[in-house]
Specification:
mainly beta; 9-stranded antiparallel β-sheet; about 350 residues; 13-stranded antiparallel β-sheet
Amino acid sequence: MPKVQQHAEREILSPTSLCDSKGNLNPAAIGYSRKPLIDSNLSGHFMRKKKWNYWCIYGEDIMFSASIRHMDYTVICSVYFVDYETQRFFEKTITVSLSQRVHMPNQVLETINFSNDDMSMHLLHIQSETHMKVMISNFDGDFLQADLQIEHPANDESLNVVIPWNRQLFHHTAKHHIMPTSGFVKVGDKHYNFNSEDSYAVLDYGRGVWPRKASRKWAVASQRLGTQRIGLNFGGMWTDGTGMTENAVFVDGHMSKISEDVIFKHDETDLMKPWNITSKFSPDVSLTFTPFLQREANIKVGFVNMTGYQMVGYFNGFVHLDDGSCLSITQLLGSIEDHKAKW
């Protein structure tokens, strides 16, 4: 029997603009959709707009990430990788002059290109695929080359949600999960292959107008578990009290939307201790996350001061799906991020 949500979020079923003619939040955009229907037509709000495309690919041997973040007054490009076995980690972050005019499109699945002497990043979206090509001449003393093909299965659903703080402060986030990925990443003489049967990408697309200070937690996984493709997406703090969440579970492309807030419980003094994620009122979500690696990222550029911790580890527990069934989670590789920003 399908479960009854304690709070029902509005589902958007047709294309909608994020903003009105004054650049403020369009009330008709508040809600979520299973396909990318929101046009992120941001305007105005000088120095307050935030735009980013963050990609993370969970391979058999490594986790690889490439991101572009446009802050209105600076552009930050970042690439990192984690070798699960050796726990080798390195991250390359550069800031880009606004004179280079990095274009951040209004639609979730559109092409983005960036290139300078330090880094090139090409995200070409064509015919239900994203072709990712990244090159860095000096990546921890090595040459890095990534050439990945990310599939967007036609019938897969995604989480696209508009979070409203008020008419002047709001954010459109799109979380696309369990996208089969093939290709390679080469770091120096080390070659890592990605097989579409076992490697999956996650896209975190964001467009919005944020307050000066913000905190958020994000739990994510995209893996094959037995014969199923499983994706987890849980967020906390930044969505609390808005009536909307970014909480969802994906099973073989179908999304079960969770309209209830979740609570992250962990030891603030030791982020490597196990974390617990539970639904606020119901027993629908009960997960334990056990980290094996911690990544720290601190970015201070002009007005931007961001501190982030990302723990890589395994999820165990269960989640109740929208059809009333219980999905058991056992040793599902993923990560939890804890971010604080003054921007």
